[in-house]
Write a structure and sequence with these properties.
27% strand; alpha+beta; six-stranded mixed β-sheet; seven-stranded antiparallel β-sheet; single chain
Length: 396
């Protein structure tokens, strides 16, 4: 579908790819559109919903500046998916042993490995980059225990992060996972968001929301933030890559011999990149959105009881060559816990081997938008390549 709404209440228009947008999210988009650094327009994807400062499901083009809170604290959060040379018939009838094996191989929540599982060379490369950041901003080191980041490589985290075993339309088996830059990304994000707020106060910037404080090119902390955010994005990619390796190796002893196919995707959906749009070199922030350049493959997950999609981008200019990053929440986590109970969770995840306790109630499918409607709203942005349905889900 083409753009469904155009809102003109800021310096630039807001182009929205859905009819379903909450009042709070719309107000956040209007605030963003008022900033002098925004170029051409702001785009809102079909999964749009209110976030902290900046709207989740938004694409924010900034000229010569970056808004740290728009990038957020889960810097480089995204998806990784691989197809295995297995079919549904190769899976056991009872998937509990598979889920247990994955849970033993990949720490979840705040947990981490006892020691790094990646090659020492990879750790050293990341360590050198982080040392340069901390050398200029020692406050970052005070916010996390030393070298926890190295032991969190190949770990899941909590919240909406997950590891899934899925079947596609041809009954082929896929492994799909969702995670980001873990504790160190959170620390870097919080540190620079705070720094941007302080700079805005010092320079008496008039902002519609203090979380929209930004660093401009040439300013004291701009280059440091760019270096730090790019490091965290590289870390997030490495984290997903290592986690996928651990999951695949954990599955091997319990399944017939298999290979990982060449169709593998590892993409961010909370990040900033240098791109050119509408004749301008920009810093493009995708806050809960993925890149969808022409022929570019991406992953759009649903909730833990619904379908997910492997997609191919159409390179739509109005969306800044972007699309949604998932289904998008319709309610807060606390509201989901009030509205649903364990019986609801069991009913909505029937047929999926997963946790069904109150600890994951806030992730119940009913707390999310209808993924099929989200996909229908972005037919101008992507084509569906594969439709996946999970049979096993590990949550943080």
């Amino acid at each position: 579908m083409p753009v469904k709404q155009v809102i003109n209440k800021g310096r630039v228009p807001i182009k929205i790819y859905t009819d379903q947008i909450e009042h709070g999210a719309l107000n956040q988009l209007i605030n963003i559109a008022q900033l002098p650094i925004i170029h051409h327009h702001v785009a809102a994807m079909p999964d749009v919903h209110a976030g902290i400062g900046a709207t989740v499901g938004s694409v924010i083009p900034t000229a010569g500046a970056i808004i740290p809170a728009a990038v957020g604290v889960d810097i480089g959060c995204g998806m990784n998916a691989v197809r295995l040379t297995l079919k549904a018939a190769d899976l056991p009838d009872d998937l509990r042993r598979l889920r247990s094996a994955v849970e033993q191989a990949v720490p979840v929540g705040f947990n981490h490995h006892d020691k790094p599982t990646v090659q020492r060379k990879a750790v050293n490369q990341l360590d050198a980059g982080l040392d340069r950041i901390i050398g200029r901003h020692p406050g970052i080191a005070k916010m996390q225990k030393p070298h926890v980041w190295a032991r969190q490589l190949g770990t899941l985290g909590g919240g909406n992060h997950f590891i899934e075993l899925c079947l596609d339309e041809n009954q082929a088996v896929w492994v799909m996972l969702h995670s980001g830059s873990r504790g160190i990304g959170n620390v870097i994000g919080r540190y620079f968001i705070s720094l941007a707020r302080k700079d805005a106060q010092r320079h008496q910037l008039h902002l519609p929301d203090r979380d929209l404080a930004y660093f401009q090119e040439g300013a004291e902390h701009f280059d440091d933030y760019v270096h730090a955010v790019e490091w965290a994005q590289d870390y997030a990619l490495a984290n997903r890559r290592e986690m996928m390796r651990l999951v695949v190796e954990a599955l091997r002893p319990l399944l017939p011999p298999f290979q990982v196919s060449k169709e593998a995707i590892n993409c961010h959906h909370n990040y900033v990149a240098r791109e050119t749009h509408f004749g301008q070199d920009l810093f493009l922030t995708r806050k809960g959105a993925i890149a969808a350049a022409r022929d570019q493959l991406g992953i759009i997950p649903g909730s833990m009881g619904t379908r997910s999609y492997i997609v191919r981008g159409k390179g739509n200019a109005e969306s800044f060559c972007s699309c949604s990053h998932g289904a998008g929440r319709t309610m807060s986590r606390s509201e989901a816990k009030r509205r649903f109970n364990r019986s609801d969770l069991e009913a909505q995840t029937r047929g999926v081997e997963c946790r069904k306790d109150k600890g994951v109630l806030d992730e119940i499918p009913g707390a999310y938008k209808d993924i099929d409607q989200v996909m229908a709203d972005q037919t101008d942005l992507v084509d569906i390549v594969h439709t996946l349905k999970q049979v096993l889900c590990v949550k943080g």
